[in-house]
Amino acid sequence: MGEPERAATDRRWCERVTLTFHNSGGTAVRSGSVTLGTHVIGALGVDWATIEATEDLPAPIAPGAREHGTWTVCVDAWRVPLGMRVETRDVSVRWE
Predict the structure, then answer these.
(1) pTM to 2 decimals?
(2) Are strands 66-74 and 14-22 parallel, antiparallel or unpaired?
(3) Cβ pair 50, 37 in contact under 8 A
(4) Looking at domain 5-95, which of 3.30.830.10, 3.30.300.20, 2.60.120.40, 2.60.40.10 is its CATH number?
């Protein structure tokens, strides 16, 4: 799995996150999930909270193949007042 590529949206409590998955094994990945940890960052850079969201992998992923997945990750709008932002920094994958 590659590093998350983040892009802003028109809502400060959301962002688009793209990940690249590489199946380096000998069999297809048929399913799984990715957990995205989105941090709520204050105006002075203080990390106020981390909110997790779980999404399905873009499966199946053939042996040796690379697949991309893109998700719009949002937290509750009330968690991100003016001057604050979100950053999806933490990513974990469960392969099945």
Answers:
(1) 0.85
(2) antiparallel
(3) yes
(4) 2.60.40.10
